[in-house]
């Protein structure tokens, strides 16, 4: 509280002047009843009139000041109302502009989302196409590898030559009575050799146990190679033509994906690998040994087994190679982080 305010409070300050004017007027009016002289009465009446006029003027001045204050307050209130209305109108216009801008941004965001969805679908389609092309490429490489293995191994589809005509077999390959007799003599010799008492075997030291190795699978024997009507050659020609057409289509698809130069380089590399595999596998085929007449069927079996071992060697040599499916990857990378930043 400021100093001296308790001495001159606001209500007392407002009532002091009117109270003084009223007190002077009442005092002079009462004093006019006491003296009997005319001059004194006139003076008291003049003082009373002056006090009344002073009070009237003071009240009028206060009234005018109060009116001015009220008018100023009313004017300030109207100004505040106008300012408030103008501010409200500005805020409403800003709100409308913000709504329009928000609608535009929503439309842009929706368009960006649609574009992003399209890019994602295109990317997925490219990935699927690339995976399909790589699968076809791997299939083509596997087919070439198998063809190289088949080319390196002796042809098993060729018709087997019949053994020459001898005392044991006829021109058709059927055994003769002489062959049966020799086979019977060989079996009797084996039986006599088994009946002989054998000497006690010498005592041998125990050998170490060799590790288990899986059995080798021999090449399948083709039975019957004679073509009576020439249908097998025609079927083989049709199959080779169909295979060539399929390989041509696959090569075109691979050329569309990885390019002509990469496909030509890969063809040259595959051809060189197949040639090396054929050269390495051909010397491994042993010549058919000369066997006695009773064991006439063992020569074709030995030849087939040797061919199977050579084919397995070539296949094992090619199977150890790793096929790189991503050597010619030309997929365009997409900056997903930049797209997400643009969306957000």
TrEMBL record:
Domain of life the protein comes from: Bacteria
TM annotation in the entry: 12-34, 40-59
Residue numbers spanned by region Disordered: 152-175, 288-315
Key word Transmembrane helix present: yes
Keyword Transport found: no
Keywords noted in UniProt: Coiled coil, Membrane, Transmembrane, Transmembrane helix
Annotated Low complexity bias: 152-164, 288-310
Coiled-coil regions listed in the entry: 88-136
Protein name: Secreted protein
